[in-house]
């Protein structure tokens, strides 16, 4: 059932795809680091001759890019896992409400602990929110064992519910409105090394663990009956994957606000290219997610220059038509 | 569950509505004594009465629009919010509020147009192979709504100055609504009610399969279209006046069916009354909970409605 790439052609193809994606990522990275900086030479990047340039590169551009890369990878992986445990190819942390839950509680902690400085409080808030929504969804799925589209609808309702709370919190603290609003649209501007530290420490191990579980994920994707028939501990596996999703989504929301639809788009594109073996799909999703978010962030910075728009808006503009396309293509079948 | 007598329920609801109306006039940031309430030009008559009436009308509109949508799509999850009325009208209103702030008289018109356009988009995108599958309708609505929300967020970020007003509008508030808004709203409610009183029987018949409907000689598509237009008219007029007051159209019809059964003769009026009561209570609560700050009524309805919706999802195996 799980196909190993047995012949040379397949391996070569895979290597080719990986290197193409990697090249794409590198090109995007170089662009977003160097775009519109005057007087940039290779030496100024390394040596601290021109303090302003040095600062721009190493304290503004590079941390922002690295954050986009790690969050893109994490969100794409989270979306991939979510689509497996919900057995629904339309799932995404944004659609299903995890992002809204996380941002609801993150906004609460921003407002209570007056905390753009206090990133730890935001992080805890985001984790609490993501866990609460995931818990509710877990209970919902328990009651609707065979109907995963219901789960999606439940997620939609939960996200409206959380959104209502978020707005009322904001209205209570109207003075901080614009910074909260900007954060809520999903943003990467002003990324610092501290954000990066949190994001990399939490997300890289999570992605690695997810890849280690690829075999079990493949089984789970076959449906519960087959998976349990083949001896998989379903509840345990789903719990672990759920925990990974909470960590990845929660930490992304905490450092960058809710960024939607990366988790929806990327796994589909990857599966279209390399099939459905998660041993390949997961790492490639991470790579493609990183490139996509880095590219979206580049667009968010420069398309409407000098106004910079939140990257979440760009991903939503990409994701919504994609979602509609998937819906139409699938006809009545939503698995 | 044994169905309660229809007349009994209607009496209770009317009594509750009257009580809520009285409380709406009396309490608020300033409590008004009974004798002052009936003076002409008092605070109650001038500011609270129009709000209360609008809450009443909006509740009726949203609940009946939801009931109609749910029966023509045969889907208990359809509602005006979900087919895109709310996000479309939100976008229309935000465009006026933020981009053309000088034309603020046009908010209602733009919100109305936005609602109609977005419903047309959602319906036509979910129409495939001659039918509209309920689940696809819902998911398309969700997707289109998130697209519109992204545009709204973009506008809010770009024009950060006026955004708190926009945000309140988006969450459905009845703040500063006046008699002039009632003038705009009541004809729609009346027209919708007349159409639905003349045609309520079709809602029962439409529950049959399409083959049987054609078999008994009904023009299915024309009837559906008429019903859909009525529903959209009711919902769009309501949101264009009061903003996106969510979940009323979603949760009230199933609740009233639970109370009086599946005959549209009974559940339509009960839906209208419960909807009116719900929005009136939400508006009252929003004013009273934390004065002088107001919580938009739409937030209260969402906080009440969403858990009930999740319960419906769980309860309906």
Automatic annotation (TrEMBL), chain A:
* Membrane topology according to the record: Multi-pass membrane protein
CC per GO annotation: plasma membrane
Q: Which CDD domains match?
A: TM_ABC_iron-siderophores_like
Instruction: Report the InterPro entries cross-referenced here.
Output: ABC_BtuC-like, ABC_transptr_permease_BtuC
Localization: Cell membrane
Q: Provide a Gene Ontology MF annotation, just one.
A: transmembrane transporter activity
- TM ranges: 12-35, 65-84, 96-114, 120-140, 152-173, 240-268, 309-327
Q: Which family does the entry's similarity section mention? A: Belongs to the binding-protein-dependent transport system permease family. FecCD subfamily.
Protein name as annotated: Iron complex transport system permease protein
Automatic annotation (TrEMBL), chain B:
Work out whether the entry's keyword set contains Chloroplast: no
GO CC term, one of those recorded? plasma membrane
Q: Identify the Pfam families for this entry.
A: FecCD
- Segments passing through the bilayer: 6-32, 53-72, 92-125, 137-161, 185-204, 225-251, 266-285, 297-314
The organism's superkingdom is given as: Bacteria
Question: What is the membrane topology noted in the UniProt record heading this document?
Answer: Multi-pass membrane protein
Q: What are the GO MF terms of this UniProt record?
A: transmembrane transporter activity
Q: Which CDD domains match?
A: TM_ABC_iron-siderophores_like
User: Which keywords describe this protein according to UniProt?
Assistant: Cell membrane, Membrane, Transmembrane, Transmembrane helix, Transport
Q: Where does this protein reside within or beyond the cell? A: Cell membrane
One of the GO BP terms on file:
siderophore-iron import into cell
Instruction: State the similarity comment.
Output: Belongs to the binding-protein-dependent transport system permease family. FecCD subfamily.
- Name it: Iron complex transport system permease protein
Species whose genome carries this gene: Cytobacillus firmus
């Amino acid at each position: 059932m799980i196909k190993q790439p047995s012949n040379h052609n397949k391996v070569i193809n895979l290597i080719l795809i990986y290197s193409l994606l990697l090249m794409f990522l590198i090109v995007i990275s170089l662009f977003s680091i160097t775009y519109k900086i005057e007087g940039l030479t290779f030496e100024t990047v390394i040596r601290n001759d021109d303090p302003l340039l040095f600062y721009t590169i190493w304290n503004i551009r590079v941390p922002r890019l690295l954050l986009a890369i790690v969050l893109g990878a994490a969100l794409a992986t989270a979306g991939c896992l979510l689509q497996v445990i919900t057995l629904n190819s339309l799932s995404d942390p944004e659609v299903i409400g995890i992002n809204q839950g996380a941002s609801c509680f993150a906004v609460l902690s921003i407002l209570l602990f007056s905390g753009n400085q206090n990133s730890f409080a935001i992080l805890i808030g985001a984790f609490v929110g993501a866990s609460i929504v995931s818990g509710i969804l877990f209970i919902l799925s328990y009651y609707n064992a065979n109907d995963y589209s219901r789960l999606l609808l439940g997620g939609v309702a939960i996200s409206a519910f959380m959104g209502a709370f978020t707005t009322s919190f904001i209205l209570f603290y109207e003075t901080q409105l614009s910074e909260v609003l900007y954060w809520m649209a999903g943003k990467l501007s002003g990324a610092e090394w501290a954000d990066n530290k949190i994001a990399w420490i939490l997300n890289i191990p999570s992605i690695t663990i997810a890849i280690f579980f690829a075999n079990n994920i493949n089984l789970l994707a076959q449906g519960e009956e087959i998976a349990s028939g083949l001896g998989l501990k379903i509840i345990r596996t789903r719990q672990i994957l759920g925990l990974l999703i909470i960590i990845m989504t929660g930490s992304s929301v905490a450092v960058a606000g809710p960024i939607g639809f990366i988790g929806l788009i990327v796994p589909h594109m990857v599966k279209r290219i390399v099939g459905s073996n998660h041993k390949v799909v997961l790492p490639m999703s991470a790579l493609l997610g990183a490139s996509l978010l880095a590219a979206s962030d580049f667009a968010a910075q420069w398309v409407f220059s000098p106004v910079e728009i939140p990257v979440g808006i760009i991903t939503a503009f990409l994701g919504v038509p994609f979602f509609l396309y998937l819906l139409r293509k699938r006809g009545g079948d939503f698995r | 569950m044994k169905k309660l007598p229809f007349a009994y329920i209607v009496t209770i609801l009317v009594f509750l509505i009257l009580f809520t109306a009285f409380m709406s006039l009396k309490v608020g940031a300033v409590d008004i004594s009974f004798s002052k309430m009936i003076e002409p030009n008092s605070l109650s008559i001038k500011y609270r009465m129009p709000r209360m009436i609008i809450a009443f009308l909006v509740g009726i509109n949203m609940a009946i629009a939801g009931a109609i949508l749910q029966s023509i799509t045969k889907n208990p999850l359809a509602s005006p919010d979900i087919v895109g009325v709310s996000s479309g009208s939100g976008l229309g209103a935000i465009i006026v509020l933020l981009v053309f702030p000088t034309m603020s008289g046009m908010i209602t018109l733009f919100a109305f147009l936005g609602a109609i356009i977005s419903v047309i988009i959602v319906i036509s995108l979910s129409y495939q192979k001659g039918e509209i599958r309920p689940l696809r309708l819902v998911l398309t609505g969700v997707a289109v709504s998130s697209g519109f929300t992204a545009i709204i967020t973009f506008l809010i970020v770009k024009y950060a100055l006026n955004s708190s007003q926009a945000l309140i509008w988006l969450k459905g508030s009845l703040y500063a609504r006046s008699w002039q808004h009632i003038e705009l709203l009541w004809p729609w409610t009346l027209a919708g009610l007349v159409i639905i009183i003349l045609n309520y029987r079709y809602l029962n018949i439409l529950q049959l399969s399409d083959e049987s409907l054609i078999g008994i000689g009904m023009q299915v598509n024309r009837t559906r279209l008429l019903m859909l237009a009525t529903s959209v008219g009711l919902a769009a007029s309501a949101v264009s006046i009061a903003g996106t007051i969510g979940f009323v159209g979603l949760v009230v019809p199933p609740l009233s069916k639970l109370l009086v059964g599946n005959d549209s003769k009974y559940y339509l009026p009960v839906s209208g009354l419960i909807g009116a009561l719900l929005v009136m209570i939400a508006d009252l609560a929003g004013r009273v909970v934390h004065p002088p700050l107001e919580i938009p009524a739409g937030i209260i309805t969402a906080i009440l409605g969403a858990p009930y919706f999740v319960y419906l999802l769980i309860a309906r195996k």
